[in-house]
Amino acid sequence: MSTLSTEQLLHAYRVMRTIRAFEERLHVEFATGEIPGFVHLYAGEEASAAGVMAHLDDEDCIASTHRGHGHCIAKSVDVYGMMAEIYGKKTGVCQGKGGSMHIADLSKGMLGANGIVGAGAPLAAGAALAAKLKGNRAVAVAFFGDGGSNEGAVFEAMNLASVWNLPCIFVAENNGYAEATASNWSVACDHIADRAAGFGMPGVTVDGFDFFAVHEAAGAAIERARAGEGPSLIEVKLTRYYGHFEGDAQTYRAPDEVKHYRETRDCLMQFRERTTRAGLLQAAALDAIDAEVEASIEEAVARAKADPKPSPADLLSDVYVAYP
Ligand SMILES: Cc1ncc(C[n+]2csc(CCOP(=O)(O)OP(=O)(O)O)c2C)c(N)n1
Ligand SMILES: [Mg+2]
């Protein structure tokens, strides 16, 4: 905790608070019926994205999942552009053609959210191979869930990352469920991190409600990758505060399951308590961030709602990549 500067601590809090406010607002807005497509909220899992991304810059790549808003925000993708994208507007980061599950911003090293479970891992391994060949000390991070951790594509990517000694970090966000299926039923081992041994890489399990635990584990894995020592697996144990998708009745969860986590483990609550108790941050500074973030989300929603949709002619652009 004390190794982080005041500026870094405030940044981490701002990232987590922005994700929370973004997702809580989307939860409300989605219910109005104005947002097209599917939305999977990341609220509750903020410390994972913030803890990992604190070590990355624009040169480093990440590959995300269907639950990708938090990863995008922590990777500095523009919040208004994301909101407009989710509303399907022309001003969105992908001109409104991607929506929630296909937000990408290559200028930020954000290779994309992904509707195909486990499909981000090979993309990250490819980006890590590119970084290795360029020799620029960049790394790539693959995020996937407990469900994604059972996918063959993830195993193949982990195997090749190890065989090629790639600067690739695999982050398994274990929120206990894949849709309605509990991970203690669908994952064959007790800890996803134990699978690392099968691919000859280190694996650790960390408390995903604790920003500092994630930050430390990610820092070690990323430093290792930058030093040319190869890939790692980090299992981050956490929970999602909302359903699998917006509209999920969550009949498979105990009635007060989320309430318990919110009241006793919440990552923002713990971060605030620990940093203020240790005298590292002032509550007033955190309150000010809360207010600024609320205002920025309010503005993002208002602008996104008012923005134009793509026109039929826009269908014909962005079909192929234009190489300079
Ligand atoms: C290859 C593939 N199989 C199945 C699906 C349907 N599907 C979408 S999300 C999901 C669950 C993913 O669970 P997990 O990886 O734990 O991520 P979480 O939703 O918990 O963040 C499934 C099965 C899909 N999109 N892609
Ligand atoms: Mg899951």
* Strand order in the sheet with the most strands: 1-2-3-7-6
CATH homologous superfamily descriptor: Thiamin diphosphate (ThDP)-binding fold, Pyr/PP domains
- Determine the strand fraction and express it as a percent band: 5-15%
Bound small molecules, by name, code or SMILES, are:
thiamine diphosphate, magnesium ion
Topology overview:
Elements: H1 6-30, H2 46-53, E1 61-63, H3 69-74, H4 79-86, H5 120-134, E2 140-145, H6 152-163, E3 168-174, E4 177-178, E5 181-182, H7 183-186, E6 203-207, H8 211-226, E7 232-237, H9 257-264, H10 267-277, H11 283-306
Parallel strand pairs: 1-2, 2-3, 3-7, 6-7
Antiparallel strand pairs: 4-5
This protein binds thiamine diphosphate and magnesium ion.
Entry keywords:
Rossmann fold, 5-stranded parallel sheet, 324 residues, pyruvate dehydrogenase (acetyl-transferring) activity, Pyruvate dehydrogenase E1 component alpha subunit, 42% helix, PDH_E1_Alpha_Subunit, single chain, alpha/beta, 11 helices, binds thiamine diphosphate, DH_E1, binds magnesium ion
